[in-house]
Design a protein that fits this description.
Length: 191
């Protein structure tokens, strides 16, 4: 008979206890989904500024933005329900997310899609690690993360199908965005 796994059951010295781990998970995921919303808002604004606000890329981005808003709303709800303090970096992520979105969309529709690939690949990895670390005592939170992870993978696949890899300097661009995303995750978990 399999014993139920508990969150933080196999932690190492210095690792957070179960409560702290769950708080960090909710905090960083709420920040990440908020950041994703701001990236898409920046992309949509830049596409409108350049007269491409009604094209296929704009429709795809708007659909992805709706999913991110739904994710963000769920993590906003969890912050309140679980009494978790949000990251203090929210104002920074608001500006940085919008700026990243606008900059990539100004580089072109394929660069905007490359941004989506980079962010979603980082989030896929991040959510997979969280889901693996959450025990059966946090099955509902783990289920939410797994559902959102599947949707983030769909966004990545849509962006790849839309020609993301044809963006100018795709490799360096996505590497820089992934590095920034990993730094934002690390900071939001702790601050």
């Amino acid at each position: 008979m399999k014993t139920a796994q508990k969150t933080a059951e196999n932690r190492n010295p210095g690792d957070p206890d179960a409560r702290t781990f769950v708080e960090r998970t909710i905090r960083v995921d709420q920040a990440g989904e908020f950041g994703a919303v701001r990236i898409y808002e920046g992309q949509l604004a830049a596409l409108r500024w350049t007269g491409r606000g009604h094209g296929e890329a704009s429709r795809k981005i708007a659909a992805m933005a709706r999913a991110e808003r739904r994710h963000n709303k769920e993590f906003d709800r969890l912050l309140v329900a679980r009494r978790v303090r949000p990251t203090l970096l929210t104002p920074l992520w608001s500006v940085a997310g919008f700026a990243l979105g606008a900059a990539t969309a100004l580089m072109g529709e394929k660069a905007a899609m490359a941004c989506t690939v980079a962010v979603e690949e980082t989030i896929d990895e991040h959510y997979a690690g969280q889901a693996a670390a959450l025990g059966d005592d946090e099955a509902e939170l783990r289920g939410t993360i797994e559902t959102f992870r599947a949707e983030e993978i769909e966004h990545r696949d849509e962006a790849l199908a839309a020609g993301a890899e044809q963006a100018p300097a795709y490799g360096p661009l996505t590497a820089a965005i992934k590095a920034g995303s990993r730094l934002a995750i690390w900071l939001s978990t702790r601050v």
